[in-house]
């Protein structure tokens, strides 16, 4: 079977920046083993596979709100599966942006509301355009949930794995589990110098994941007033085969919930801010995060970004999952 994989750099408009994803727009004839083999061959942090929607009686609940001009249809109109080079994951922000950017380009879509079924539930995705007519994609993440705060022992273990003194972790804010469909540990640092100066031990970070019960660690610092972004972040996920992810929608979304919960955003019903990630890797990208509150509580989070086509692969995939590149 021949398969075309589109390569898309998400959360950037510059090829080679942001976060690259593989996208297979016609994946209905592939099984999970073949998808995993393709993702391993592509080598991007995630590869997305677009499939027909599941039967209506298998559709999981998602965000039941209408925010930012988006709505949740009664049933999903697509199923998207996401694979790292080593495993399937429930949902992926940058690969969602990449998939819908690819749909816009390949199908000539300028504006559309989609209901995307994922391993983390059904999520609305909006394809729109900017003032120049370029595609922009907005994704509503899953239900915002604040989890427990980490204790001093766990914070010290993470600091050691990151190669920083524990004193570089802010003591006036918690290190905390936050979920918007997928869970991340959110850790605030004192400044961007500490953030970009980290030299993580990825093996040690990966070994901590079972103990912590969470694979994704998002470490951030507040930015100054002289830059167009509010926070600067780095995300580590070696337990899922991603030592460091350049730009992560499903980490910046939970970061938005965290900022709102701890008084780090304006006290308004709707707040939009920009997060930067990937600078330390030379893959700087920007995520637009919108937080919606109702009666003081965060009820929904959206991430948005642009993307750029970076290339295409043609592969022959055997029934057993053997990959042969084609010219």
Automatic annotation (TrEMBL):
Active site: 46
Entry GO terms, CC: cytoplasm
Keyword set, alphabetical order: Isomerase
InterPro entries: Phenazine_PhzF-like
Molecular-function GO term, any one: isomerase activity
Similarity field: Belongs to the PhzF family.
Name of the molecule in the record: Phenazine biosynthesis protein PhzF like
Annotated organism of origin: Desulfovibrio subterraneus
């Amino acid at each position: 079977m021949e398969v075309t994989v589109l390569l898309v750099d998400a959360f950037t408009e510059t090829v080679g920046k942001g976060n690259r994803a593989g996208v297979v727009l016609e994946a209905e004839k592939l099984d999970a083993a073949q998808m995993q083999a393709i993702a391993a061959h592509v080598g991007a942090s995630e590869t997305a596979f677009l499939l027909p929607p599941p039967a209506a009686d298998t559709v999981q609940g998602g965000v039941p709100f209408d925010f930012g001009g988006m709505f949740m249809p009664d049933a999903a109109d697509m199923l998207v599966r996401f694979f790292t080079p080593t495993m399937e994951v429930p949902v992926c922000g940058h690969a969602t942006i990449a998939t819908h950017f690819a749909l816009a380009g390949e199908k000539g879509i300028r504006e559309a509301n989609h209901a995307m079924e994922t391993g983390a539930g059904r999520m609305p995705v909006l394809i729109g355009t900017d003032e120049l007519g370029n595609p922009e994609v907005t994704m509503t993440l899953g239900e915002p949930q604040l989890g427990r705060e980490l204790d001093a022992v766990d914070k010290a273990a993470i600091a050691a794995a990151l190669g920083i003194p524990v004193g570089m972790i802010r003591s006036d804010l918690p290190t905390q589990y936050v979920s918007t469909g997928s869970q991340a540990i959110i850790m605030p640092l004192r400044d961007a110098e500490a953030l970009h100066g980290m030299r993580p031990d990825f093996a040690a970070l990966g070994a901590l994941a079972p103990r912590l019960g969470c694979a994704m660690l998002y470490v951030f610092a507040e930015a100054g007033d002289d830059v167009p972004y509010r926070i600067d972040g780095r995300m580590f996920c070696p337990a899922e085969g991603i030592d460091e992810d350049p730009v992560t929608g499903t980490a910046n979304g939970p970061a938005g919930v965290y900022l709102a919960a701890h008084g780090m955003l304006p006290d308004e019903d709707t707040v939009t801010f920009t997060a930067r990630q990937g600078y330390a890797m030379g893959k700087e990208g920007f995520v637009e995060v919108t937080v919606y509150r109702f009666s003081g509580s965060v009820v929904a989070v959206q991430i948005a970004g642009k993307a750029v086509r970076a290339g295409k692969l043609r592969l022959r995939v055997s029934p057993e999952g053997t990959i042969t590149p084609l010219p």
